Amino acid sequence: MKLISGTAHPQLAQNIADVMGLPLCDATVNTFPDGESFVQIKESIRGADAFIIQPTCPPTNHNLMELLVMVDAVRRASASRITAVMPFYGYARQDRKDKPRVPITSKLVANLLTAAGVNRVLAMDLHAAQIQGFFEIPVDHLHSLPVLVKHLKEKYVHNMSNLVVVSPDIGGVKNAKSYANVLGTELAIVAKQRISATEVDAHAVIGNVEGKDVLMIDDMTESGGTLCAAAKILKEHGAARIFAGVSHGVLNDAARARLKDSPIECLLTSDSVPMAYGENVDTVSIAPLLAQAIANIHNNDSVTHLFEI
Q1: Tens digits of per-residue pLDDT, 234-279?
Q2: Catalytic residue among 107, 192, 232, 260
Q3: Which of 67, 55, 73 is nearest to 275 (CA)?
C-alpha cells in the first residue's frame, strides 16, 4: 500500500498516515511559476495499491488538475490499482441541468478521473448521492454522521429529549432526517429563498422549536448565509441553544465573520477541507474513518460497518 498526498490538504493526509502507522510516499508535488502542476513519484510504486489523498476543495480547478496529474504519474509508474481519496468532491453541486444550456460538471469530473486512470473512488458525504452513478468504476461513499454524532453527544448535548434537528432548507431534509432518526429527536424545517449566491432570506419554520436546543444539519457551508439566516429565524421562534453540524466546512472569511455574529453557538464540522476552522468552529478529525476505509479497501473487506453508530 502507498499513501500519496497532494497539496490540497497535506495535514489530513499526514493524520491518515499516522493513524495507519505508514509513511507518506516520497513524492514531489508543486507548481511551476506559470501555474502548471508538476508531480514526480520519488520511490518505486510498481505493483502497489496506491491511494491518492486529495480533496478537490478551493482552489477547486487547481486541486482537481493536480489530482489528475498525480493519477497519470502513478499510472505511468505501474501501480496495480489507483484509488482517489476525495473527502470533498468539488463541483458536486453541479449535478443536474437546472437551467437551459448548462453543464453537468460533476459528471464531467467523474469522466476525467476515470479517463486519467482512477480505478476506485473513496468519497465522503457527496452533495447528491446519485453522483456515485456518474462513475463506471466502484465508489465507496462514507458518511461523517457517526463521527459528528459521537462528538456532539460527548461534548455538547447530553439531554436528547430537548433537542430538535433542523434542516436549514427543503433540499436538506433527507440528510437532517438521518440525524433525527439516529438521535431519536423531532425534525423541523426552515423555508428559505435564495436572493443571491451569498444572501439568503429565511421566512418560515415548519415544526416546533420553542424552548428547544436546535441542531441544524447541512452537507456543507461556504458563505454561511443559509445557516445564519436560519439561525436568526429559529431564535425568533424561541429556540434556546443553536448548534450547526456540516460535513464540509468550506469556510471563507465572510463566513467566519457571519458565524461569529450569529446566534449559532458552535459549528461542528469535519476536517475534510483545510479551511474548516474559526472562532466558534469545532473541527472533528475524520482521519481514523478514512484510514479504516483505506485499510478495508486494501484488504478487500467491507466498509459497510463504518456507517454504524
Answers
A1: 999 999 999 999 999 999 999 999 999 999 999 999 999 999 999 8
A2: 192
A3: 55
Place of cell 445557516: 227
The one-letter amino acid at 253: D
CB 166 within 8 A of CB 188: yes
Q: What residues contact residue 142 under an 8 Å CB cut-off, 6+ apart?
A: 122, 123, 124, 125, 289, 290, 293, 303, 306, 307
Q: Which residue matches cell numbers 497535506?
A: 10
Active site residue 192: yes
Nearest partner of 83 among 112, 61, 114, judged by Cα: 114
Per-residue pLDDT of 199-223, as tens digits, reads: 666 678 889 999 999 999 999 999 8
Which set of grid coordinates corresponds to residue 256?
467566519
Ranges 57-66, 112-121, 133-142, 203-212: which has the least confidence: 203-212
- Residue 151's nearest CA partner among 283, 240, 11, 307 is 283
